[in-house]
Design a protein that fits this description.
The chain is of the alpha/beta class. It has two domains: 114 residues, Aspartate Aminotransferase, domain 1 (Alpha-Beta Complex); 265 residues, Aspartate Aminotransferase, domain 2 (3-Layer(aba) Sandwich). A seven-stranded mixed beta sheet has the order 4-10-9-8-7-5-6, sandwiched between helices. A four-stranded antiparallel beta sheet has the order 11-12-15-14, with helices on one face. Helix 5 crosses helix 12, helix 9 runs parallel beside helix 10 and helix 13 runs parallel beside helix 15. The longest helix has 25 residues. It is globular and about 70 Å long. It starts with 14 loop residues before the first helix and ends with a helix.
Length: 427
């Protein structure tokens, strides 16, 4: 396998075993490209890349370059800077296409995630008297729920009538693909859009984007995805899968800083249609006409035609640093390391739960997973979370009783996971 060379022995809970895996790890050197927070004189065990990725060390220089051009050139930095600001969004396209499995005319970095979700609904949600329903997961991230609720109101529709909610089966925590497919088939006459995540934020479940998209198209519906927890975490082939649209944030697995720029994917079968409804802004105007200040919106070809405003340069400079790191790595290499690392975490958590009676938890993340395991705890869950934090383990608490842990292949090591076990066994 790639990422970590094939290791045929069963997992072992020894430091020697973990270090051996780190020695074989083809991505081990990338840890040095990130700042690792410290606790008690040691690197923390950072397992919250699914919430905020760590800072790449080249970030300071990237921002300084743009600050220097601003200081030395003023407005001329738009055209004469080292990275001319006029075209800055284009510098991010190669990295985005690599991560998303897209063509360059299908992606653009812009805005924030929820803004982009609303923009995509404006273009793709076109309810009719017969076909107006939207399929979502139960327990979706609140922003997604609020987007659909307010979009329904915008069209003078009742949210509860618009919503088709797919739920896990009794005594299960994950959504079965066959249940999603069956629900799409059941609503084939009135379904306008399937709107799902690529990876479920609470459980870490990976959705079968390709199969769901195929079924949505079969019944005449649009397939759109929130990839907040998927971009940089799973291998995506949005173009080949014929996904209609997608959006994501850049501050989780894409390591681009808190609240940083989002992006959109719009399949090329749609971007050629200038008559698609959209909310327009100056930066989406055809570049050759943008500074003529004429009436009449004539969109830039491709996803770039959905831009509203000029690029936030300092944020995009940070984003580009991380995208450049991803561009050095094959996505299947990243995925293979991710799978081995997450499997080792699974082994460690299971071992600790079996050998420390005070650990009352179960893993609720299904086998269709990426770089996240969600642990359903008992009454002691918050105490466990605080104990981990006090001992240099940065994890994530989600109400009412789940601890999320995300081992990121770019900067987490197998020894991190072994160290976690030593802390858990002493709880």
């Amino acid at each position: 396998m790639q990422g970590v060379k094939q290791y045929n022995k069963k997992f072992e809970l020894t430091q020697e075993f973990a270090k051996n895996l780190d020695t074989q790890d083809l991505l081990a050197s990338y840890r040095k490209k990130f700042f690792i927070p410290r606790h008690g004189g040691k690197d923390v065990i950072y397992l919250t890349g699914n919430s905020l990725g760590l800072q790449p060390k080249n970030t300071h220089q990237a921002i300084k370059t743009e600050l220097d051009d601003w200081a030395n050139m003023g407005v001329e930095g738009h055209f004469q800077g080292k990275n001319p600001w006029m075209h800055y969004h284009k510098f991010l396209n190669p990295g985005l296409t690599h991560i998303l499995g897209a063509n360059e005319n299908e992606v653009v970095a812009m805005n924030r995630l929820t803004v982009n979700l609303h923009l995509m609904f404006t273009s793709f949600y076109k309810p009719t008297k017969k076909r107006y329903k939207v399929l979502m997961e139960s327990g979706a991230f609140p922003s997604d729920m609020y987007v659909l609720e307010t979009q329904a109101k915008h069209h003078q529709l009742d949210y509860e009538d618009v919503l088709i909610e797919v739920k896990p089966r009794d005594d299960e925590h994950h959504h079965r693909t066959e249940d999603i497919i069956a629900l799409i088939e059941l609503h084939k006459e009135d379904l306008a859009m399937v709107f799902l995540p690529g990876v479920q934020y609470y459980t870490g479940q990976v959705f079968d984007i390709e199969k769901i998209t195929q079924k949505a198209h079969e019944v005449g519906a649009i397939a759109g995805f929130d990839l907040a927890h998927a971009a940089g975490n799973i291998e995506l082939k949005l173009h080949d899968w014929q996904v209609d649209w997608a959006s994501w944030c850049s501050y989780k697995y894409l390591n681009s800083g808190p609240g940083n720029v989002s992006g959109v994917f719009i399949h090329e079968k749609h971007v050629k249609n200038k008559e698609m409804p959209r909310l327009a802004g100056w930066w989406g105007q055809l570049e050759s006409e943008r500074f003529k200040m004429n009436k009449g919106f004539n969109p830039e070809p491709g996803a770039a035609g959905w831009q509203l405003s000029n690029a936030p340069i300092f944020g995009m400079a940070v984003h580009k640093v991380s995208l450049d790191i991803f561009s050095q790595i094959k996505m299947d290499t990243l995925v293979n390391k991710r799978d081995m690392l997450t499997s080792y975490l699974d082994f460690v958590l299971t071992y600790c739960a079996q050998n420390n009676p005070k650990l009352n938890f179960q893993i609720i993340t299904p086998k269709s997973r990426a770089a996240q395991l969600s642990i359903l705890t008992g009454h002691e869950g918050k105490d466990l979370y605080k104990y981990l934090n006090k001992n240099g383990v940065i994890s994530d608490w989600r109400e009412p009783n789940v601890i999320r842990m995300a081992p990121v292949p770019l900067y987490n090591s197998f020894e991190d996971i072994w160290r976690l076990a030593q802390i858990l066994l002493k709880f």
